[in-house]
Amino acid sequence: MKHLVNEAFLQKAAALKPQLVEKIHEPKAMVEIKKGKVVKSQSIDQLGQMQLGKGDKVCLDFGNHYVGYLTLHIHSEGEHPDAPLFMKFKFGENAQEITDCSEDYNGGLSRSWIQEEWIHVDVFPAVVQLSRRYAMRFLELTAIDTSPHYKIVIDHVEFKAVSAVEESAGGSYVTTDALLQKMDQVSLKTLEDCMQDVFEDGPKRDRRLWIGDLRLEALANYETFRHYDLVKRCLYLFAGCRHENGAVGACIFTEPKVFVDFIYMYDYALFFVSILLDYYKASGDEATARELWAVAREQLMIGLSARDERGVVIEDSGAFLDWKLGLNKQAGAHGVLIYSLRQGIKLGKLLGEDVSLFEEELVKTIRAAKEYLWDPSLKLFVSGKEKQISYASQVWMVLAGVWDQKTNQEILACLVQLDPEMNMVTPYMNHHFVMAYLECGQKDKALDYIKSYWGEMVKDGADTFWELYNPKNKKESPYGSSIINSYCHAWSCTPTYILRKFFS
Ligand code: RAM
């Protein structure tokens, strides 16, 4: 696959690579986990007293979620070791992953994402350092075998956590509401752990720069860490390595060198425009906005070209919107196009660019939405040939501002009452639902909803917010099994943004 590479942009991105902050953490307790729940916890001081032989295991709890590198110091007890130690490491972002069985996994994504490792150690005492980076709170160590003549003792365990930011730099949300306070903290931790060389989507999986995730992380970052350069770096990465037709790819690999993934997502490419506008507004960095305007403009042109003769975005535009299986994306994608045109017009005007073409297309695209995607009897938007009704379609049309505020309020009320089967499964889509309430001026409803959705995740024990969360099906996964889900996922970090920006 050919790419469009702009070396000057990639050099700018490289120069902005952050120096990671490192912090050492030690386990806080030894725990027993059954069926995904911690059932027993004991002092970590016991660890050094334990001798582990064939089949023995111990589970360590670090007390919070961290991203980084593990080191173990081990010595042997008994006779001189006459066989190597064969040891298994299993990392869990949450307790459930420790008891889930990876052998049973047969889903759509590679099993290699499950955080397990097997090593041999021949000589003791040994300092064992795992070279791979892990995302975890829990670590289960199993001595698969030593020999009948010796056992091992773990003297010391440490985890070097890394992030592009210092936790304390994120500030805090001032409130007397304990749940909101906790939600802010969990969001901040999620963001911190996803902020690495780039804004990653999730430090367990996929560990790379996705543009939909970046958009929400950047917004949360502006209210917290304010690491503008990391956003700038990511913008230059997306602009510096694109698909052959000029489209911004859905995600970027940065190692061993910058490489855009073959995946194109209609909505994600358009979001380059809003990320650039948000970045400009937050940082005031006009030079970057000006330099990247042409790329943003091109995304709008590509977005506009995916409409049919009626001016409606085609059904197979390649939009993502949500991981809800069976979701028809047409109306939602059409909403994203209108939304992005509005953002592009704002950005262009700020930069003194000619946006008359986009203004004309905006009018036409809104008209097409009203004429072909709106069902006046239902007072809802419908999507695709089968006229599917979904949360995603309504939410994006509200955010697009197709109708006035009062009608938008009615749409959301009607949606909630109908509660269509095509609901929302990702915090990403749920974020947009909350934003739709805010867009309609319904702050109370927005706050209640954040509390019920992210608050429920907190009650379910989240140290960091998850990639997927459906309160009606807590093991929801589009990948065939929740063991592969990510439990620290960037696109779920937005309560800190919403609370600090709209409820301070
Ligand atoms: C998930 C990724 C990322 C998202 C894509 C569409 O698999 O982890 O968060 O942007 O889906």
State the helix count. Answer: 14
Q: How many DSSP-defined strands?
A: 16
Portion of residues in helices? Answer: 25-40%
CATH architectural grouping of one domain: Sandwich
Bound molecule kinds, no repeats: alpha-L-rhamnopyranose
Q: Quick check: average pLDDT?
A: 97
H/E series, N to C? EHEEEEEHEEEEHEHHEEEHHHHEEHHHHH
Principal-axes geometry comes out as: globular
CATH class of one domain: Mainly Beta
Structural notes for this entry:
- It is globular, with a radius of gyration of 24 Å.
- It has a domain at 21-163: Jelly Rolls.
- The protein has helices spanning 7-15, 95-99, 178-194, 211-223, 228-240, 266-283, 286-304, 330-350, 356-373, 391-400, 405-418, 427-439, 443-459, 495-502, and strands at residues 3-5, 21-25, 29-34, 37-43, 57-78, 85-92, 116-121, 126-129, 134-145, 150-163, 209-210, 241-243, 251-253, 259-260, 374-375, 380-381.
- By secondary structure, it is of the alpha+beta class.
- It is 39% helix and 20% strand.
- Helix 6 packs antiparallel against helix 7, helix 7 packs antiparallel against helix 8 (330-350) and helix 10 (391-400) packs antiparallel against helix 11 (405-418).
- The mean pLDDT is 97.
- The chain starts with a strand and ends with a helix.
- Bound molecules: alpha-L-rhamnopyranose (RAM).
- Alpha-L-rhamnopyranose is lined by residues 201-202, 206, 210, 212-213, 320, 491.
Task: Give a short synopsis of this structure.
It is built from 14 helices and 16 strands. With 504 residues, the chain is α+β, with helices and mostly antiparallel strands. The protein has a domain at 21-163: Galactose-binding domain-like (Jelly Rolls, Sandwich).
